[in-house]
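To the wet lab folks,

You asked to see what we're planning to order before we commit. Fair enough. Below is the target structure as tokens, and below that is the sequence we designed to fit it. If anything looks off to you, flag it before the synthesis order goes out.
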């Protein structure tokens, strides 16, 4: 008689609750990237403000990449703003080229509590604020795959509902009437271009219906 075998349970790998060297290096790289970016961005914003130039992200991306020696993207700035919203503001702006094409740009500024030009103590304070926030984040999120989230980018509504715009816009009476007349003309043209419904019933039935309508009109 064969002795009964002990029941075998499926092996389940233990949940990874420790940081490997790879995890540590990734976190260190993410931390240093954001710290380098904050330092570079502060300098760029200050410099452009001194020359009365707005800091639009697409105009400074290459400068940030060269100064940090990292592949900086707008996502990195969104990570900083998630941790430290008191450092920067990010605003969507509408840009138009000579052909009238509209594109979306992002304006980066210091928050109102920081005065330009930043003093040395202000730069150090900003560095300490970010460093402390990053340290606290990874302390609160000890999972190995933890990464700093991003804020949601502000967006422009580049597709405008013309009818809604006409209702809300403060237009002179003459201009409003002219626009309304154009809209009515367009609607009439659309109606004319619509395919006419196909007649139903036999020719005899349609002729009888026509005679009935004519008789009704003449009555």
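Sequence we intend to order:
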């Amino acid at each position: 008689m064969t002795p009964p075998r002990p029941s075998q349970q499926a092996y389940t790998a233990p949940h990874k609750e420790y940081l490997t060297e790879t995890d540590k290096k990734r976190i260190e790289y993410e931390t240093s990237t954001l710290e380098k970016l904050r330092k570079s961005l502060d300098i760029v914003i200050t410099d452009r403000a001194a020359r009365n130039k707005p800091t639009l992200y697409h105009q400074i991306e290459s400068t940030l990449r060269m100064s940090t020696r990292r592949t900086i993207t707008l996502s990195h700035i969104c990570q900083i703003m998630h941790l430290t919203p008191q450092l920067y503001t990010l605003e969507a702006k509408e840009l138009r080229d000579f052909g009238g094409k509209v594109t979306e740009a992002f304006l980066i500024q210091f928050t109102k509590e920081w005065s330009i030009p930043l003093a040395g103590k202000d730069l150090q304070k900003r560095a300490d604020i970010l460093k402390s926030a990053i340290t606290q984040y990874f302390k609160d999120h000890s999972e190995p795959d933890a990464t700093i989230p991003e804020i949601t980018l502000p967006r422009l509504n580049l597709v405008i509902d013309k009818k809604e715009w006409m209702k809300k816009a403060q237009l002179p009476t003459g201009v409003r009437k002219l626009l309304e007349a154009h809209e009515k003309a367009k609607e009439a043209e659309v109606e004319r271009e619509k395919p006419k419904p196909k007649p139903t019933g036999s020719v005899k039935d349609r002729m009888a219906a026509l005679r009935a309508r004519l008789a009704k009109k003449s009555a």
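Structural context that might help your review: The two ends are 110 Å apart (CA to CA). The helical segments are 21-50, 57-68, 74-83, 120-140, 162-168, 173-193, 203-218.

Thanks,
Computational group
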